[in-house]
Amino acid sequence: MTLKQLEAFYWAATCASFAIAAERLHLSISSLSKRINELEQSLGVGLFDRSGHRAELSEAGRRLVPRAWNLLQEAEAVRRCVAVDTGLTGRCRIGVGELTALTWLPRLLKLARREHPDLVVEPMVEVGAALEHGLESGQLDCAVIAGRSPRPDICSERIGEARFSWVIASDTEPAASAMSDRLLDAHPLITLALGAGTTRLLDDWLNDSGLDVRQRLICNNWGAIAGLVSEGVGVGMLPAAWAAELARRGRIRVLKSSPALGPLPYSFRWRRDDTRPVVPGMLAIARQAIDFSARNRLL
């Protein structure tokens, strides 16, 4: 029995598929399966039931999962105790939302490359719900997502917040200076899809203000929302820095609101069972990089 065999087994057991586990360990699927087979031969028992469409943990496999995790934890502790810190290496798959990608993701990638030149960071851009699923399934090593995770197996560390403003096209409803029930009655509310972090912020604001939405126009892209609002298709909310820049150009007007839109907190998330050095390393870099007021060069 070797640590590499236990590592292959553990990630195969806790990821959504052997393919994802193999990718996480930078192995081919055949190499991953070979290590698991060798472990099974060493233990004299099958750890997976392969009779169905996909491999499922056997009873022995389920008993081994927590023990394998403990052994891997001890091995990592030993490595950290004696190893010389030469920086992070390998590959890190980090999930971010579109707003992060359009503002401070470039800074994060530059900082990671400068501080850890042997680490390859691969970003994936998706809505929060999809990123959370990617963490749980093992497709992602870490992610930056609005809010905190409700799942006990996912750790969340708050690292910053984003602020938003209500906006309308500059030539639409020229007498309007604040969000109102009349505006929401006359114009569609342009918003991101329900899986986005801004959904909670929007719902909380509507509840606190006592306003109702007659019509929603769902869009999955911040740039498209900015364009639709600028063209007078409806009202919406945009990141505060974007709203200020577009207002400066005369394309939109920023609307007052009572109550004001609250800040949207963002957290760095990772699987609780992932104690590799890459996790705290990327958390530290994310803390340095986060800035939702960073200029969007696409505007």
From TrEMBL:
- Say yes or no: keyword DNA-binding present: yes
InterPro entries xref list: LysR_HTH_N, LysR_subst-bd, WH-like_DNA-bd_sf, WH_DNA-bd_sf
Cite the HTH lysR-type domain residue spans from the record: 1-58
Keywords tagged on the record: DNA-binding, Transcription, Transcription regulation
TM region positions: none
Q: Which PANTHER family match?
A: HTH-TYPE TRANSCRIPTIONAL REGULATOR (PTHR30126), LYSR FAMILY TRANSCRIPTIONAL REGULATOR (PTHR30126:SF94)
Family statement:
Belongs to the LysR transcriptional regulatory family.
Q: What is this protein called?
A: LysR family transcriptional regulator
To which species is this protein native?
Pigmentiphaga daeguensis
